[in-house]
């Protein structure tokens, strides 16, 4: 049996692999400050991408995407602002927030990965 932390790490690894196959470059992983944590900070061309990785073993309490609520968004934005203040070389670059949601499927495929670019613009 795996722990929650191990499942989270596996989800982050899956998301990172997917994003790197789409030519994003990893800047930092699990960056944290007193305001929150950023799972992955990537570079897509010249755009800094703050990636929230969410996974669910089942959808009884809602799916992975639905778990990024307004409160979580506020924490991610605050952590990203802190990151840009601390990592000034990225402060003038365009940035966006993406979500990678990993969920079980009803088919033979074990997991479904959904990458939502500009997830907070909707």
UniProtKB/TrEMBL annotation:
Q: Which domain of life is it from?
A: Bacteria
* Alphabetical list of Pfam families matching this protein: UPF0102 (PF02021)
Record keywords, A-Z: Endonuclease, Hydrolase, Nuclease
Output the Gene Ontology terms for molecular function.
Answer: endonuclease activity; nucleic acid binding
Iron among the record's keywords?
A: no
Query: InterPro entries this protein is in?
Result: Restrct_endonuc-II-like (IPR011335), tRNA_endonuc-like_dom_sf (IPR011856), UPF0102_YraN-like (IPR003509)
Q: Known PANTHER family for this protein?
A: UPF0102 PROTEIN YRAN (PTHR34039:SF1)
What family does the database annotate?
Belongs to the UPF0102 family.
Protein's name in the database: UPF0102 protein IQ22_00168
| Origin species | Pseudomonas duriflava
